[in-house]
Amino acid sequence: MKKYLVIGNPIEHSLSPKLHNHWFRENNIDAIYEKKFVNKVDLKDIINQVREGKIAGINVTVPFKKEVISYLDKLTLDAESTQSVNTILLANDKIVGHNTDIGGFESAIKDTKYNFVGKKILILGAGGVTPSIIFALYKMKVSSIILSNRTKAKAEHLKNFYNPIMVEENGWKKIRVVDWGEIPEFDMVINTTSVGLKNDQKLNLDFSKIGKGKFFYDVIYNPKETNFLKTGKDLGNKTENGKKMFIYQAAGAFKIWHDILPKINESLLN
Ligand code: ATR
Predict the structure, then answer these.
(1) pLDDT tens, the chain, 270 aa long
(2) Domain harbouring 52, CATH code
(3) Ligand 1 interacting residues, C-beta cut-off 6 A
(4) Ligand 1 centroid to 218 CA: how many Å?
(5) How many CB atoms lie within 10 A of CB 173?
(6) Is 65 annotated as catalytic?
(7) How confident is the model at residue 47, as a pLDDT?
(8) Residue 253: half-sphere exposure toward Cβ, Cα within 13 Å
(9) Per-residue confidence (pLDDT) for residue 270, from 0 to 100
(10) Residue 122: CATH number of its domain
(11) How far apart are CA 245 and CA 14, in angstroms?
(12) DSSP structure string for 112-147
C-alpha cells in the first residue's frame, strides 16, 4: 500500500488526511495518507524516504515550504517563482517540488466572483504561503500589494524578491511594505499569518477605521471563523476562509500524484 504524508509543525489542524483518504476510497486507490509532526532536523531523512520509495508523496505545510527546497532535485516553475513547495514526489529518479497553493488560491478566489482587477490588497504575514498568494494576485491583475509582517525584514525580503521580476503594466504598482500595526487603505485584506490557528488567538490590529464593503480573506480554514474574520464580518465586510483554497490545492496535489482530478465536495470538511 502506498503511503502519503503531510508534514508540518504544527500539524494537528490539518484536514489533508481526511480529504485525500476520502479521494483514495472514491477512486479505488490502495493508499493511505497520514499527518506527521516534524522538526527541521527531520526533513532530510523524510525526503530521503521518498527517494527510497518508502513514501510515495509528501505535502508540506507551515513552516517548511521554503526549507524543504534544499533537499529537492528539481522545482516546477511555480515552485521556483515563489521559492515555495507544498507537494513532493519522485519522478524519473528526481525528487520534484511543486506548488499547488497558487492554483488553489486562484480557483478559490474565482469561486467568490470577486473582481480582483485593479484592487488594492493588504497582506498580513510573510510566511510560507505568502509568496504563492502574492504571485497569484499579481497574475490576477490587482493594482497593488501592501505587505505587513510583525518581523518587517521578512516582508522587505519578499518585496525585494518580487519587485524586480514583476513588470509595471496594467496599472500595477510595486509592492510596498508598511509597519506592523499600520492599516493603510485597501479593498481586500488577507491574513496569511498563523494567528488564529488556535481558536483564541487574535491579531492585535485595529480595523475600526477602514469603512465597510471590504473583503476579509483568511487562509486559515480550521477553525472556520477566526477572530480576524469575525472582526471583518462585525464591521460589515465580506469574508471568506481558506477552505476552498485548501481543497483546491489538495486536488492539485492529487492530480499530480495520481493523474486524476478528484471530485470537489465542500461538505466533506463540514
Ligand atoms: P515562517 O514564519 O517560519 O515562514 P509560517 O507559519 O509560514 O512560518 O509564518 C508565520 C507567519 O505568521 C509569519 O508571518 C509570522 O510573523 P513573523 O515573521 O514575525 O514571525 C506570523 N505570526 C506568527 N505569530 C504571530 C503573532 N503572534 N503576531 C503577528 N504575526 C505572527
Answers:
(1) 999 999 999 898 899 999 999 999 999 999 999 999 999 999 999 999 999 999 999 999 988 999 999 999 999 999 999 999 999 999 999 999 999 999 999 999 999 999 999 999 999 999 989 999 999 999 999 999 999 999 999 999 999 999 998 887 777 889 999 999 999 999 999 999 999 988 789 999 999 999 999 999 999 998 999 999 999 999 999 999 999 999 999 999 999 999 999 999 777 776
(2) 3.40.50.10860
(3) 62-63, 125-128, 149-151, 154, 193-195
(4) 14
(5) 13
(6) yes
(7) 98
(8) 31
(9) 67
(10) 3.40.50.720
(11) 13
(12) HT---TT-EEEEE--STTHHHHHHHHHHTT-SEEEE
48 and 119 co-located in one domain? no
Do 93 and 163 fall within a single domain? no
Q: Which domain range does residue 20 map to? A: 2-99+246-269
Place of cell 470538511: 269
Q: How far apart are CA 206 and CA 231, in angstroms?
A: 10
Q: What domain count does the chain have?
A: 2
Q: Whose CA is nearest to atom 9 of ligand 1?
A: 127
Nearest to 15 by CA among 23, 189, 134: 23
**Same-domain status, 227 and 106:** yes
Query: Can you give the pTM of this predicted structure?
Result: 0.93
The CA distance from 18 to 30, in Å, is 15
CA 211 to chain centre: 27
- Cell 501592501 -> residue: 146
If asked whether residues 253 and 156 sit together in one domain, one would say no
CA separation for the pair 159, 139 (Å, rounded): 16
Which residues have C-beta within 8 Å of that of residue 141, sequence separation ≥ 6? 116, 117, 118, 170, 172
pLDDT at 7: 98
Is residue 184 within 8 Å of 122, Cβ to Cβ?
yes
Which residue among 67, 194, 195 is best mutated to probe the pocket of ligand 1, counting the most ligand atoms within 8 A of its Cβ? Answer: 194
